Amino acid sequence: MAMASHQLTIPRTAPTLATERLTLRPILLDDFGDYAKLMASARATYMGGPFDLSVAWGLFCHEVALWHLAGHGGLAIALRSTGKCIGQVGINHGPLFPERELGWQLYEDYEGHGYITEAARALLAWAFDELKLATLVSYVDPGNVRSAAVAKRLGGVLDHVAPRQDESDLVFRYVGRV
User: Fold this and answer.
1) For residue 88, what are the CA distances in angstroms to 81, 102, 159?
2) Residues near 119 by beta carbon (within 8 Å), at least 6 away in sequence
3) Which residues make Cβ contacts (< 8 Å) with residue 110, sequence separation at least 6?
C-alpha cells in the first residue's frame, strides 16, 4: 500500500510535555509490563484485542518507532507527583491508519480523573503548534462511550465521510489552528 510522503521539519525524537498534573514523556522499556497487561485484558476489546504478548509488543514498538519514521508517535503518561506511568497517548500513522490518529490508553486504576483529556489536549496542541498539522482524527469504537466523551471534550466533531480503519468506527475530527 503506497503512502503519501509528508516530510516533517522536526527532530525525529519524542518530546517531553508537561501539564498541570502530568508529564508526557518518551516511552521506556520499563513501561511495557503494565501496557501488556492492559492489552491482554478485556478492556482492549475497543482496540481490537485482547492481544497476546507478541502482538502487544509489536503495538508497543509501533508507538516508539513512529517517532523515527514519522516525526510523531506515542508518549507515556506519567503522574508528575510520583512519576508513575498510567497510560499512553499518541499520534498514530502508517498503512493501518487512513489518517493521522490521536489515540490514548489509560490503565484502569486511573480512570475518572480527567487524565486522558489533559494528556490528549496537550499532545493535540503540540501536533498543531509544532507539527503544523491541519487535522487529526480519533477512531472510536461505537461502544466505547468514555473515549467518545473524551473526543468530544477535546473539540472533536463526528466526521461521517472520513475513511476508517474499521467501518463501524466513529471518526472524531480535530481541526488545527489556521
Assistant:
1) 17, 11, 24
2) 19, 22, 24, 75, 77, 87, 89, 104
3) 86, 87
Determine which helix (DSSP H) or strand (DSSP E) holds 95, and give its type and residue range.
none
Q: What CA–CA distances, in Å, run from 34 to 28, 30, 119?
A: 12, 9, 18
pLDDT in tens, 90-145: 999 988 889 999 999 999 899 999 999 999 999 999 999 999 999 999 999 999 99
- What percent of the residues of the chain are helix, what percent strand, and what percent coil, each to the nearest 5? 35, 20, 40
pLDDT tens sequence across 26-73: 999 999 999 999 999 999 998 889 999 999 999 999 999 999 989 999
How many CB atoms are closer than 10 A to CB 129? 11
Tell if the pTM clears 0.70, that is, is over it. yes
Burial label for 147, CB within 10 Å (0-12, 13-18, 19+), is buried
